[in-house]
């Protein structure tokens, strides 16, 4: 990742986008695969792994627990010496930064361990992010969890003596990662786990977890009606091939799929799956962009998609993002370039992520001169002439930086001069450290390969 000025002026594209984007591996799948590999009885090599702040924190935490982790960033591989659920280090302090997946998955893992006293902490924002539902569910299963500052929040101290299993109620409405963490450690429980769901749930991410568990040897997670799931106990995790390849990140793909709508042109996205074809629910965002004016076609050179801006008016859309909300900022950021209002719903839970994403995007769009109606669970954005010489506050949120970087690729002045700058562009290291290098590679001469 190249050093960047702060704030970073975004250079517009002077000609249509052309080239190939080699997407990073999925963050969601990499952190899940790291946990499942640690639960296998034997080594697993994860290929096309994402190397970012969140996945590095997860791998470092596993290593601190005595699980051997060998990472090769150049080859994008991570080898995990699985211990079948054993935690070799009886006491450790784990740091998860602002990585929600690491915080919730590790809490579940340590709660299911046969013994040990371990502590988990993170940055101030992670201490505010939702953990209450998972803590309450684990306590009802007999786990001794102490909240060292505020009940239901980090930092936590977990006194492990195994997971009983049985019936439990979990409120995962604020983060499906809490249910995913519980399901992944369910095979370590002393009896099958049946989870009753209180509140709403973003099911695609749980479905991703359940399908990945199957690829690591588990029987399917059963849905019992609409508000209950059941996972088996005693079935060991295994990966007979000794390897697992991570899909390209569908959320990272959202930025480059939107770029032709901003700058024109077409891009090749090798390995990216069509909506419904892979494990990631965020590929559903591609269907939203199709309604705006994007065409999807299979790559002629192998697996993947080619995205092309159609020669039609780009129109605003109305979309419920509840099931793929990590991508809503991408649409919101380019909404000023669309004809007519864009209405985005199902996003109330994102107020408690890296930052309050609903309030933050509304604030920054208003700075850009846009008309924005903010509701608890929705935004309506009506395009107005874009202001220039605006510096976007990213609030240390990687998705703000990447979404507005795509908007900044629009040649607002018509002469290639920057009109939008981003505060703290380095925050992209959380999930996509090479993002701006990739964007620069596409911008250079309007052609080539970015990696």
What does this structure look like?
α6 packs parallel to α7 and α10 (328-334) packs parallel to α12 (398-408). This protein has two domains: 8-24 and 248-450, Enolpyruvate transferase domain (UDP-n-acetylglucosamine1-carboxyvinyl-transferase, Chain); 27-230, UDP-n-acetylglucosamine1-carboxyvinyl-transferase, Chain (Alpha-beta prism), CATH 3.65.10. It starts with 7 loop residues before the first strand and ends with a strand. With 451 residues, it is an alpha/beta fold. Helix content is 30%, strand content 22%. A four-stranded mixed beta sheet has the order 4-5-3-14, covered by helices on one side. Strands 6-7-9-8 form a four-stranded mixed beta sheet, covered by helices on one side.
Give the helices and strands, then pairings.
Blueprint: E1 8-9, E2 20-21, H1 27-39, E3 43-47, H2 53-64, E4 69-72, E5 77-81, E6 91-95, H3 100-112, E7 116-121, H4 124-128, H5 132-140, E8 144-147, E9 156-160, E10 166-171, H6 177-185, E11 193-198, H7 203-215, E12 222-223, E13 228-231, E14 243-245, H8 250-263, E15 266-270, H9 285-292, E16 294-298, E17 304-309, E18 318-320, H10 328-334, E19 342-345, H11 357-367, E20 371-374, E21 378-382, E22 390-392, H12 398-408, E23 420-422, H13 435-443, E24 449-450
Parallel strand pairs: 2-24, 3-14, 6-7, 10-11, 18-19, 22-23
Antiparallel strand pairs: 1-23, 3-5, 4-5, 7-9, 8-9, 11-13, 12-13, 15-17, 16-17, 19-21, 20-21
């Amino acid at each position: 990742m190249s050093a960047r000025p702060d704030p970073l002026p975004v250079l517009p594209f002077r000609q249509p986008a052309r080239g190939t984007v080699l997407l990073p591996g999925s963050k969601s799948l990499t952190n899940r695969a790291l946990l499942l590999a640690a639960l296998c009885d034997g080594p697993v090599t994860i290929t096309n792994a994402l190397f970012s702040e969140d996945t590095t924190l997860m791998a470092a935490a596993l290593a601190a627990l005595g699980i051997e982790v060998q990472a090769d960033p150049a080859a994008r591989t991570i080898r995990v010496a699985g211990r079948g659920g054993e935690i070799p280090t009886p006491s450790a302090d784990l740091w998860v930064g602002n990585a929600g997946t690491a915080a919730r998955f590790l809490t579940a893992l340590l709660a299911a361990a046969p013994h040990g006293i371990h502590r988990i902490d993170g940055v101030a924002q992670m201490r505010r992010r939702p953990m209450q539902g998972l803590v309450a569910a684990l306590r009802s299963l007999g786990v001794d969890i102490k909240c060292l500052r505020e009940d239901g929040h980090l930092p936590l101290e977990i006194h492990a003596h195994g997971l009983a299993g049985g019936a439990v109620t979990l409120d995962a409405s604020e983060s499906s990662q809490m249910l995913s963490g519980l399901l992944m450690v369910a095979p370590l429980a002393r009896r099958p786990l049946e989870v009753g769901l209180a509140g709403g749930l973003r099911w695609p991410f749980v479905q991703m977890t359940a399908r990945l568990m199957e690829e690591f040897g588990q029987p399917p997670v059963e849905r019992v009606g609409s508000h209950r799931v059941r996972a088996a106990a005693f079935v060991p995790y295994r990966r007979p091939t000794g390897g697992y390849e991570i899909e390209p990140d569908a959320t990272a793909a959202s930025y480059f799929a939107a770029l032709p709508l901003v700058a024109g042109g077409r891009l090749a996205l090798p390995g990216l799956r069509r909506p419904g074809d892979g494990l990631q629910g965020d590929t559903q965002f591609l269907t939203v962009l199709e309604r705006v004016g994007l065409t999807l076609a299979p790559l002629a050179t192998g697996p993947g998609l080619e995205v092309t801006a159609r020669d039609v008016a780009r129109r605003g859309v109305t979309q419920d993002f509840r099931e793929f909300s990590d991508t809503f900022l991408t649409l919101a950021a380019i909404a000023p370039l669309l004809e007519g209002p864009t209405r985005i719903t199902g996003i109330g839970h994102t107020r408690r992520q890296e930052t309050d994403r609903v309030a933050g995007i509304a604030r920054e769009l208003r700075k850009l001169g846009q008309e924005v109606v903010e509701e608890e669970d929705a935004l309506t954005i009506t395009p107005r002439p874009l202001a220039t010489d605006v510096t976007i506050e990213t609030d240390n949120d990687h998705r703000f930086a990447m979404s507005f970087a795509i908007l900044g690729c629009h040649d607002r002045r018509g002469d290639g001069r920057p009109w939008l700058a981003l505060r703290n562009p380095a925050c992209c290291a959380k999930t996509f450290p090479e993002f701006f290098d990739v964007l620069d590679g596409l911008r250079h001469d309007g052609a080539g390969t970015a990696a």
